[in-house]
Amino acid sequence: MPEKSNIVLIGPMGAGKSTVGRHLASHLHLPFVDSDREIERRMGVDIPTIFEYEGEDGFRQREAAVIADLCSREGIVLATGGGVVMRPENRECLKRCGLVVYLRTSVSVQLRRTARDRNRPLLQTENPRARLEELLRIRDPLYREIAHLVVDTDREHLRGTVRTVARRF
Ligand code: S3P
After folding, report:
1. Nearest CA, atom 4, ligand 1
2. Closest residue (by CA) to atom 8 of ligand 1?
3. Integer Cα distance of 166 and 77 in angstroms
4. pLDDT digits (tens, 9 = 90+) for 43-59
5. Which one of 129, 137, 139, 165 has the minimum C-beta count within 10 Å?
């Protein structure tokens, strides 16, 4: 059981974590926090710049520090980055942070939602579909490992997803 009363949204890039999170927060009258935006705010630069200068490892270290800080709060809706589950310490932290909701999404839908996005360094590749498939193969079991609730965002529309999560909170 979680120790804190937050809602934590996990899932791959393009799952709709920020969109669902913003709507959920306004529905429940709670603050919304996006860990990627919080990392950028603290660093004063965007995520591609952090990847460029510090590599993915540097980004993951900063991400772990921000996740630990945000999970000390109560009553927030937290959207996380798609790779947050790669570190065991993040998985432990998030499980205790609140109701963990995995927004499950197919690769085709992820591709559609991220098509024109230049802010995701891991998708700056010749074959984003192959990259997303590989990431999902590795991460799907990790998302499931810590999720208290799985919502299929390919099937559920935004309002349905918000209602399903709000009912469980
Ligand atoms: C990443 C996902 C991004 C961001 C970074 C790395 C990943 O967040 O944290 O580009 O490893 O999947 P979103 O899932 O919000 O796009």
Report:
1. 81
2. 81
3. 11
4. 999 999 999 999 999 99
5. 137
